[in-house]
Amino acid sequence: AQMALERDYESQREMDTRYRVLMEVTRDAVVVVSVGTGRIVDLNTAGAHLLGGTKPELMGAAIAQEFEGRRRGEFLESLTNLAVSDTAAPIDLLARRSQSRLLVTPTVFRAAGERLLLCRLESAAKVVAVQDGLS
Amino acid sequence: AQMALERDYESQREMDTRYRVLMEVTRDAVVVVSVGTGRIVDLNTAGAHLLGGTKPELMGAAIAQEFEGRRRGEFLESLTNLAVSDTAAPIDLLARRSQSRLLVTPTVFRAAGERLLLCRLESAAKVVAVQDGLS
C-alpha cells in the first residue's frame, strides 16, 4: 500500500509539473480564484499582464479589487453564476490596474473540497480588432 | 509525517484537477508526448480535432505516425531540438488523418524522471488568414 501511494504520489507530481508548463505555454491569459476567499490562487504571465500587474503582486490579491466598481460578494456570485450557466458570453469588465476592458470567461470546478474559478481573460479591444480584420 | 504526506497528496490531487480543467478550457490545441516512447500521453479535444481524430483514438498513438513522411527517431529529435533552441518558429507539418498543415510548437520538460514534450498545434491556414486580416 505504501508503494502504491508513492507511485500515485509520483504521478501526481508529474501532473503538477504538466499544469505549470501548460499555464505558461498557453497563449490564453488565465487567473485561478478561490470562491471561498475571493483571492487569486494562481495566474500566468499573460493573465498578470492583462490585469496590469506582475505575478508576485497579484498572487493572493482579492479578485474583486482588480476590477472597477465591483463589490466582492456580488462579483464572485456573478462569476460563479456565469460559470454554471449555458450562455457562452463572457463578462465585460474594466481592470483597475491596466484600465483596459477585459472579457472574462469563468469555469467553476471543485478540487480538494474547495470551489475554484478558472477565468480566461481577453482584451476586449483585441477581440474587436480581430473580428473587424476577418469580416 | 503521515499527515503532512496526506496534506501534500491532497494538494497534488488539486493540481491534477486544475491541469485537466486547464487542458479543456484553453483555446490552444495541445498534445503531450513522451520522448522515451514517442507516444501521445495526453491531448485535449482541440488537439484531437486538428489531428483529425478523437481523444480515445489518439491517446497512446505514436506521434510520428500522425504526420506525413516522418520517421519516429528523426521526428522526436527534431521536436526536442526545436524545444531547446532559441528560435520561436514552429515546425510546419502535414497531419496524416486530417490532411491539414499544422504548425507545431514544442516545449520540453522533465516530470517524474521522464522527458515530455508539450506541443501546441495550430492550423497553418488559420494563421495565414488572421495575419492577412490584420495587415
What is the multimeric organization of the chains shown?
homodimer
Helix/strand-derived category of chain A reads alpha+beta
Which regions of chain A have little confidence, pLDDT < 50, spanning 5+ residues?
none
Helix and strand run of chain A: HEEHHHEEEH
Helix content of chain A: 40-55%
Please tell me what the overall shape of chain A is.
globular
Q: How are the strands ordered across the major sheet of chain A?
A: 2-1-5-4-3
Question: Can you offer a commentary on this structure?
Answer:
Two copies of one chain form a homodimer. Chain A has five helices and five strands; from the N terminus they run αββαααβββα. The longest helix of chain A has 24 residues, at 2-25. The first copy, chain A, is an alpha+beta fold. In chain A, strands 2-1-5-4-3 form a five-stranded antiparallel beta sheet.
